[in-house]
Task: inverse folding
């Protein structure tokens, strides 16, 4: 009859030791290797394989380490934990170390039975990580069984990579380009969303009635909606059919009151109160109508809404947050500011003449079409705007527009003309459908205009190059200055032809030996909508790697607005040039936000805005829209979207004035015209109103449901169990040094060459940093910040490089016969002046059996924890020291040499007597279990249903991984004789 092993017990099978997992049955054991990860779990049939109960083997007294052995083994062990025993089940297993402020949404979520959250932190704070933390935790706890992320198709692959690399969640892409392949693998009658539990879905693909119904029927129980503000409609404005379809999709998804829903957006208002209310209504229906000025309304919203500026989290968990001290303080290195510089240029005489002729043509067409009917008037209007915008963009964009038929020309009605013409010529703040919006629009609307437009197109082509295109000449000048100052800029354009033109003009051509104006060591590449989202990311990585690591090497990216949302560029670029002005300033903020975010190494991001002094458009847009937006952001500390219809009203007035001037010569100044004054007054009123609402909401709805003290308590518990950044830094440096790596310091950061380390470590690092890096002994950069670029390692426990190093150190310590250097050992004897009596330090691994109730039933879990315990004297009469004193012993340094033979004798005596401390170790394990139980209940305090049935039990016996004896150093001869002299009178007095 097969023996029954309880969850958490140790067994020996297949030549190694395993931990029995709760999923085991008497005839089938599910096992995880001792010290291994979930990736190594195996199933064993006791009827066919030999399985025996096991106890963890004690250390070998002759295998002594030095003064660093205990600290290195402890850190290596803790880095390897992938299933923490604390209330945050997922934190030990994810490959990102969250900032303390990023735990706030997670704490809020865990207090809800069904999680409904609107996460509206400022751009660059890390909303993707915050949503990922909640998702991974709900999945780890069994509160959710599947995940769907709804996002723009351009961001789908980035979401997939973030979830896979940071949170270990493998999600399938459901896009128009992938759905046919996925459906071919389905069984008869099977839904795509039943087969794949985790999916990333294009919102625009799934919103159609054809696909929406199937998705809603089989939707996972956890949904994340990215850029959620694009999925709601305002009650008092006309909205596009696309927005209405997206809103209907989300409304039906949110109808299931049992479904977890996370809405993510940096701009929840978008200038419209009713849109904000509709967004809140998706989170919780009563929030759509509750009085948010009342205490009860604010309290209800605070449970579901988090919105913080950078200033709120730049310094966190400090005394200013109400904490007793700054011991847990965390500084997040956001760039402190953006440096704005508006640079002008003038048109060359030839370009001026071309623009005047183009304006005259457009003016005639608009006037002529005005008498032909409303449809013709709207077609001519969009054609005129297309022509003007491409003209001031570049000669190549102008030529293409002049040779392309207007998209609005095929419209059957004025409304259809607006629907076809607007997307290609305006810059909607809410448009998440940026795909295809960077193509040059057409201007041709009638057959008999071909020759005239062709003549204008030929003239435009002849103006390419800095001799006649003074805008390009100005760009070269400003890029040279940025590059000379050590910057790597990204240049944003409106249209694909402009981006390709700039790349040709600025870049070096190895084939023709043409040298660009920015220097031989400057690499220039373009990224536009002609590339797929993944190809864009690949092109950016290619640009960075091609430029190389030389100090003089620079790279310049030319991009359209296909990169203005979602793609993070802070690791490779630190300056932004707006080559083409957007007609909605929110687009400028989106562009700058790709670079100005957490992980940017520069404290100040430079922003240069190029505008034409004499083209009739740029200066007005800059003055009325861009500068006003900057001022509001400076005053509030956050960006406030300009209402789209208001922005369009102003730009329409500018175009009307320009076309009128083209027909009638110089007229009254733009700012004096009635249409402009009315449009600007409407804009000013609405924008100021939106800013006031945003300011009020940020103060009224500031995150108050989670106090910093609560965050500090949980952060301290996490660091106690898993270790902090300082511990990891010390571990990596000391381990690599001991293993023969070559380290070179660079401030807080350093590099390591591992070519001389043991083969086992090199094999472990090759899949992580690249085989070529290891084989060619290239330096691996280690950074103190968790936000690192590809090829760099972060000094955090969850970094793959740190994990590989810790695994090697731990395995070598547990195997006395391992080849090569072994920095950590399971025992050691140190003679030191840090103790006055013999003190023994134990590194103890505890295993806990947790019963975690959830709405989907109970989940049985085995988790591990490592603790340091220290006692003075002999084990039988041990005087136990407080935990903080045990930790201090890790820093004790040897002040005398300890003879190997004496050390082995000491260690043998201690190991022989360790059975005497078993009762204390078990009692301490019970205390830890009680603390863990309380911690789980505290985090879920607001949801009594979730904690009913919760239990935490310590598995016995605990494993003594390491034993380290600290012997007091003998007093020096001088101090000893002094002590004797001072003691003599007392001794005499006593005997007398």
Result:
């Amino acid at each position: 009859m097969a023996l029954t092993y309880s969850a958490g017990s140790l067994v020996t099978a297949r030549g190694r030791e395993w931990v029995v997992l709760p999923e085991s049955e008497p005839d089938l054991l599910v096992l995880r290797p001792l010290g291994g990860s979930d990736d190594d779990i195996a199933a064993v049939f006791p009827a066919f394989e030999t399985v025996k109960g096991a106890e963890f083997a004690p250390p070998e007294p002759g295998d002594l380490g030095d003064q660093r052995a205990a600290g290195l083994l402890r850190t290596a062990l803790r880095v390897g934990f992938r299933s923490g025993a604390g209330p945050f089940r997922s934190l030990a297993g994810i490959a990102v170390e969250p900032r303390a402020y990023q735990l706030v949404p997670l704490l809020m979520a865990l207090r809800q039975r069904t999680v409904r959250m609107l996460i509206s932190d400022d751009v660059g704070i890390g909303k993707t990580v915050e949503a990922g933390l909640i998702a991974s935790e709900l999945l780890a706890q069994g509160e959710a069984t599947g995940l769907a992320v709804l996002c723009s198709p351009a961001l789908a692959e980035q979401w997939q990579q973030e979830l896979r690399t940071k949170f270990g969640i493998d999600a399938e892409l459901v896009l128009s380009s992938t759905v046919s392949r996925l459906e071919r693998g389905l069984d008869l009658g099977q839904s795509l969303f039943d087969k794949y539990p985790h999916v990333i879905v294009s919102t625009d693909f799934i919103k159609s009635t054809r696909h929406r119904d199937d998705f809603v029927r089989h939707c996972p129980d956890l949904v994340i909606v990215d850029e959620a503000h694009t999925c709601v409609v305002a009650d008092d404005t006309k909205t596009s059919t696309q927005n209405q379809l997206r809103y209907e999709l989300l409304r039906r998804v949110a109808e299931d009151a049992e479904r977890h829903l996370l809405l993510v957006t940096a701009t929840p208002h978008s200038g419209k109160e009713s849109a904000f209310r509709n967004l809140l209504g998706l989170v919780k229906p009563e929030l759509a109508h509750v009085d948010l000025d009342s205490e009860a309304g604010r309290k209800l919203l605070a449970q579901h809404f988090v919105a913080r500026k950078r200033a709120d989290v730049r310094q966190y968990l400090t005394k200013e947050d109400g904490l007793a001290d700054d011991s847990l303080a965390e500084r997040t290195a956001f760039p402190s500011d953006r440096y704005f510089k508006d640079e002008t240029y003038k048109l060359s005489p030839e370009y001026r003449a071309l623009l005047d002729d183009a304006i005259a043509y457009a003016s005639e067409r608009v006037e002529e079409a005005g008498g032909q009917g409303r449809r013709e008037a709207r077609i001519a209007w969009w054609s005129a705007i297309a022509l003007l915008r491409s003209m001031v963009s570049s000669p190549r964009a102008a030529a293409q527009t002049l040779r392309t038929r207007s998209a609005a020309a095929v419209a059957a009605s004025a409304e259809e003309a607006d629907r076809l013409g607007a997307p290609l010529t305006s810059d909607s703040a809410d448009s998440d459908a940026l795909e295809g919006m960077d193509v040059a629009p057409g201007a041709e609307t009638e057959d008999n205009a071909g020759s005239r437009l062709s003549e204008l197109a030929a003239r435009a082509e002849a103006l390419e190059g800095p001799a006649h295109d003074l805008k390009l000449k100005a760009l070269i000048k400003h890029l040279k200055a940025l590059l000379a100052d050590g910057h790597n800029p990204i240049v944003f354009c409106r249209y694909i032809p402009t981006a390709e033109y700039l790349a040709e003009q600025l870049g070096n051509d190895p084939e023709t030996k043409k040298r660009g104006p920015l220097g031989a060591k400057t690499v220039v590449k373009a990224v536009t909508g002609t590339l797929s989202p993944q190809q864009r990311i690949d092109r950016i990585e290619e640009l960075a790697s091609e430029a190389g690591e030389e100090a003089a090497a620079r790279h310049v990216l030319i991009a359209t607005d296909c990169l203005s949302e979602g793609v993070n560029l802070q690791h490779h670029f630190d300056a932004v040039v707006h080559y083409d002005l957007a007609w909605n300033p929110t687009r400028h903020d989106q562009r700058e936000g790709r670079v100005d975010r957490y992980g940017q190494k520069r404290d100040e991001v430079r922003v240069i805005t190029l505008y034409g002094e004499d083209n009739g458009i740029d200066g007005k847009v800059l003055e009325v829209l861009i500068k006003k937006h900057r001022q509001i952001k400076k005053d509030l500390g956050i960006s406030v979207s300009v209402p789209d219809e208001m922005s369009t009203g102003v730009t329409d007035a500018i175009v009307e004035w320009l076309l009128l001037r083209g027909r009638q010569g110089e007229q009254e100044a733009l700012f004096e015209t009635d249409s402009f004054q009315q449009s600007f007054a409407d804009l000013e009123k609405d924008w100021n109103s939106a800013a006031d609402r945003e300011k009020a909401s940020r103060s009224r709805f500031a995150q108050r449901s989670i106090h910093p003290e609560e965050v500090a308590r949980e952060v301290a518990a996490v660091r106690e169990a898993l270790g902090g950044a300082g511990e990891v830094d010390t571990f990596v440096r000391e381990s690599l040094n001991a293993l023969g790596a070559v380290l070179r310091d660079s401030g807080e950061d350093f590099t390591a060459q591992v070519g001389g380390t043991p083969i086992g470590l090199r094999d472990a690092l090759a899949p992580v940093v690249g085989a070529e890096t290891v084989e060619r002994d290239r330096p691996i950069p280690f950074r103190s910040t968790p936000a690192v670029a590809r090829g760099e390692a972060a000094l955090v426990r969850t970094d793959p490089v740190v994990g590989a190093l810790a695994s090697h150190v731990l395995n070598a310590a547990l195997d006395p016969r391992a080849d090569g250097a072994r920095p950590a050992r399971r025992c050691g004897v140190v003679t030191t002046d840090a103790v006055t009596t013999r003190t023994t330090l134990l590194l103890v691994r505890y295993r806990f059996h947790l019963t975690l109730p959830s709405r989907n039933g109970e989940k049985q879990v085995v988790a591990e924890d490592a603790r340091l315990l220290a006692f003075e004297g002999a084990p039988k009469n041990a005087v136990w020291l407080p935990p903080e004193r045990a930790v201090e012993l890790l820093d004790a340094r040897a002040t005398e040499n300890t003879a190997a033979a004496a050390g082995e004798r000491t260690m043998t005596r201690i190991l022989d007597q360790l059975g005497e401390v078993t009762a204390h170790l078990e009692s301490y394990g019970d205390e830890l279990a009680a603390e863990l139980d309380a911690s789980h209940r505290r985090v879920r305090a607001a949801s009594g249903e979730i904690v009913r049935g919760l239990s935490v039990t310590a598995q016995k016996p605990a494993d003594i991984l390491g034993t380290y004896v600290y012997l007091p150093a003998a007093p020096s001869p001088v101090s000893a004789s002094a002590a004797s002299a001072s003691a003599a009178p007392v001794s005499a007095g006593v005997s007398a």
